[in-house]
Amino acid sequence: MTMSGAAARDWPLTSAIPEMGAYVHAPATVRWQVRETLRAWEIPGVSDSAELVASELVSNSVAALADPDTVDAEHPAGLPRMAGDSVATIAVRLRSDGHLLLIEVWDPADGKPERRDAGPDDESGRGLVIVEALSERFGCDPHEAGGKVTWCLLRAGAGPVP
Ligand SMILES: Nc1ncnc2c1ncn2[C@@H]1O[C@H](COP(=O)(O)OP(=O)(O)OP(=O)(O)O)[C@@H](O)[C@H]1O
Ligand SMILES: [Mg+2]
Question: Which helix (H) or strand (E) holds 96?
Fold first, then answer.
C-alpha cells in the first residue's frame, strides 16, 4: 500500500508501527519504537532527528484528533474523538534503504499541516519548522483509504544519497 508521495524509491527496509489510539502517550510510544527500529536496522545515527520529527508529527495528529468537549482536569489535552465505537487512531511507518529514512504518519483528522510563523513570544507553532529544518523533503498527501499521510525524508547516513 502506498502511504505517501515519497514512496517512488525502492525501500528494502519497512517497519509498520501498528495503529494506536490517538492518546497523548502516542508520541512517547512512537519515539521508543523509532529508536529501537533504527537500532535494529543499524542506522542509529539518524535516531535523534528521527525521534524528534516522528514525535512532532504524531503530536500534531493527536492534537488534531482531540475532542475539545473531553478536556477536564484529568485530560488537559482532551481525549481522541470517537470514530464510530472506537477512538480515532493514528499509524506510523518507517522505510529506509540505508541512505534515506522515510517517516510516514497517517491520521484521519480534518485539516492539514500548515507551517505557522511563530513569533518570539509564541508558545507553540514551531513543530513543523523543526521538521522542515531536519528533513530533506516534507509533505502531506491524502491516503487512498481515507485520511492523510504526513511524511518526511531524512538522511540516514553520511555521504551522497545515491
Ligand atoms: N496532522 C495534522 N492534521 C491537521 N492539522 C495539522 C496537522 N499537523 C499540523 N497541523 C496544523 O498545522 C499547524 C502547525 O503545526 P506545528 O506543529 O508547526 O505547530 P503547533 O502544533 O501548533 O505547535 P507546536 O508544534 O510548537 O506545539 C497546527 O497548529 C495545525 O493547525
Ligand atoms: Mg506541533
Answer: strand 89-96
Nearest ligand atom owner, CA of 130: 1
For 105-128, the pLDDT digits (tens) are 999 999 999 988 888 888 898 999
Evaluate if residue 2 carries a pLDDT over 90: no
| Predicted TM-score of the model (pTM) | 0.94
Beta-bridge partner residues of 100: 155
Q: What are 147's three cell numbers? A: 485520511
Grid cell 514512496 in the structure block, residue = 7
pLDDT tens profile 25-44: 999 999 999 999 999 999 98
**For ligand 2, a single-atom ion, which residues have Cβ within 5 Å?**
60, 127
Q: How far apart are CA 154 and CA 101, in angstroms?
A: 5
125 C-alpha vs ligand 2 centroid, how far in Å?
6
Q: From the alpha carbon of 61, which atom of ligand 1 is closest? A: 1
The architecture of the domain spanning 13-68+76-114+126-155 is: 2-Layer Sandwich (3.30)
> Does any ligand 1 atom lie closer than 6 A to the CB of residue 131?
no
Is the CB of residue 55 below 6 angstroms from any atom belonging to ligand 1? Answer: no
